[in-house]
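Marked as duplicate of an earlier ticket. Keeping the data here for the record.
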Amino acid sequence: MNRRILTIILALAAICSGASAQWKQGNVPPAITRQTKATIIDTAQVTIYYAFNATNVKDENTYIDLGWLLVGKHYSKYASYFMAHSDSTYHNVVKKYAHVGSAPRQNNGGKFPSLWSEYQYDEIFIRDNKLTEYAVMPMAMVRDNCQYTEAYPLQQWTLKEEQQTVCGYRCQKATCHWRGRDYEAWFTTEIPIRRGPWKFGGLPGLIMKVCDSKGEYTFECVQVDSRKRPIKQYDFRSFKKVKRENLLKLQQKININWTTVLYGGKVTTLEGNQFPDIPYSPMELE
């Protein structure tokens, strides 16, 4: 089958499956490459799981993603647990049934398992107050896989008096304005780790929940696991180094109309209609 036609069919399937998706999710088919070679760079002393944009934090099927924060002595890593579990299952099946000659269907879990999200396909490492993000692009855009490094922590928090309980931990409120959005966070000093989900951190305790003032993006802790586990880093040497601002522009273009990015221009459906642009507003607005 012609690769262009195959891609258009995949796009139609993605649009159909994501028709009821929240507009901030996009309708982009997933990446077609999987990382295989990994190096253990540290040992996590604690792992924190966060529901990302969940309709119901008690039901993983309502999450856009389940992220996990692995905190070691030297490194901390934030990535998608759904992706890690999917990749592990994939490799185990391929290894066990190598004689079959085909790979199992990708299933990343969550609300939209067949769609790409930059928040689900990116991995973030922090060491020595430096944050490095590795971004995996969808479909055949592996040439655009990239990375950047910047200073961390990045938010200037204001502590508040309000308190509430999140995932069984007593938390205090903090607020900040960061990269175009106002955020509200709830952190606990019961876990004295100055980290949080995604790129958030810098408070005198673990961030258990954070959301923007418009309610478009929310991370909420659903589990704290004190078992030790390896922190792995894949081989990202082929990822080109870029400025963060350029990466954000590319990711936004992909979410708005990934066919334009992939083919360098507008693509039509089998019926002759152009794929429409999709309204999209990322977490980082600047």
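See parent ticket for discussion. Residues 244-263 form the longest helix (20 residues).
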